[in-house]
Amino acid sequence: MNIFEDTSSSTVRERPLRVALLGCSGSIGTQTLDVIRMHPDKLALTAVAVNSLATKLVSVAREFGVAHAAIADEARRNDPALAELPQGCELDFGEDAVTRLATLPDVDCVLVAVVGEAGIWASHAALAAGKIWAPANKEALVIGGGLLMPLAKPGRVLPVDSEHNAIYQCLVGERRRDLRKIWLTCSGGPFFGRTREQLEGVTAAEALAHPTWKMGAKITIDCATLMNKGLEVIEAHHLFDVAIDDVEVLVHRQSKIHSAVEFADGSVKAQLGPSDMRVAIQYALSYPERWDSPATHVDWRSSEPLTFAAPDRGAFRCLDLALEAGRTGGTLPCAMNAANEVANEAFRQDRCGFCDIDRIVERVMDATSVESLTSLEQIAEVDALARERARGFVSELA
User: Fold this and answer.
1) Are 325 and 233 in contact (CB under 8 A)?
2) 38 burial class (0-12, 13-18, 19+ CB within 10 angstroms)?
3) Total Cβ atoms within 10 A of residue 259
4) Which is it for the CA torsion 97, 100, 104, 108, positive or negative?
5) 66: closest CA among 19, 131, 136, 124?
6) What is the model's pTM?
7) In terms of C-beta density within 10 A (0-12 exposed, 13-18 middle, 19 or more buried), how is residue 8 classed?
8) From residue 61, how far is each of 49, 70, 104, 137 by CA, in Å?
9) How far apart are CA 117 and CA 115, in angstroms?
């Protein structure tokens, strides 16, 4: 599937792009709001969703005059904060309500910033409805890329992840058959250079201290284990229709090169810029235009030297586990992702060690009977079983 369109005859939009922001309370959501604030003449927030933070939902709805809102957590129905929603704002509850926002007629673009497996339902609905899909939720592609990408239309998929946004920018205008390799950059996380033995005793507080990016807790731990990079390889595999082994992970500590592509003739194109997710978010919302950004521009004359290294796969075993799942395909990436989510949360709650995360993921993968991917319902069943197994393995560590 070619997700690019010919931009040579693209015209300026006649009205603001109407955005549904699913997950407005997290890191990506709050940075998306920054972008919308800076460009009120070009972007209009028409629908918004949160998991449970009613006060955040109300605050955003009031500031942006949102017409539609949803809370995934049914238990928030009687939250007193909801009395402050602006007049005329339609509110609904439950995961189905969040998914319905992706299909509204007054929504042009759906930015999916919810965390984990839950994002696949809204992503599928957005694509099926012909909306512009801006995925910041990599898990949807990891577990269901084979179901999502056949629905994609040229120019209607604009990735928000900084690495995949960078790859997208590098490939605009290029012939896909000339692509040789994708270089997926990686900061290396807070534990770069440590041995497996040194990693055994690290704490969640240490793992949450990412050297260059401000992100949510789950993804920050994934960056520390390098699972995040494994998930991103699978994401790139689906988005850009390349083999798992044609995506090479490259440790780049300064996080100034957000990824690069190499062509058949040896030429390499890279996208460079500040370590600010708002640049990638804005490009996904402005494509094919470029607007002034709220991010600080880099002064390359005084920038630190750029360095590169290979990841230590022996110390950070989650990377190879994710790649194995990606190569195998079918339902294994779903089981792998579910196990990781459970183990990641257990580590943050001090119920397992840092290196137990990859051990739990490996045990769940070994216990999974891999099947061909057929439906979202199948994904939900595989996800639930993998989580049950992972929780059982976590309890054995107690």
Assistant:
1) no
2) middle
3) 28
4) positive
5) 19
6) 0.93
7) exposed
8) 10, 11, 17, 22
9) 7
Provide the residue-wise pLDDT of the chain in tens; the chain has 398 residues: 678 776 654 555 678 999 999 999 988 999 999 999 999 999 999 999 999 999 999 999 999 999 999 999 999 999 999 999 999 999 999 999 999 999 999 999 999 998 766 789 999 999 999 999 999 988 899 999 999 999 999 889 999 999 999 999 999 999 999 999 999 999 999 999 999 999 999 999 999 987 666 678 898 999 999 999 999 999 999 999 999 999 999 999 999 999 999 999 999 999 999 999 999 999 999 999 999 988 899 999 999 999 999 999 999 999 999 999 999 999 999 999 999 999 999 999 999 999 999 999 999 999 999 999 999 999 999 999 999 999 999 999 97
Q: Tokens for 51?
A: 């998991």
d(CA 301, CA 304): 9
- Distance (Å, whole) CA 344 – CA 334: 15
Question: Which tokens hold the place of 13?
Answer: 């939009």
DSSP β-bridge partners for residue 184: 249
Q: What are 324's two structure tokens?
A: 């194995």
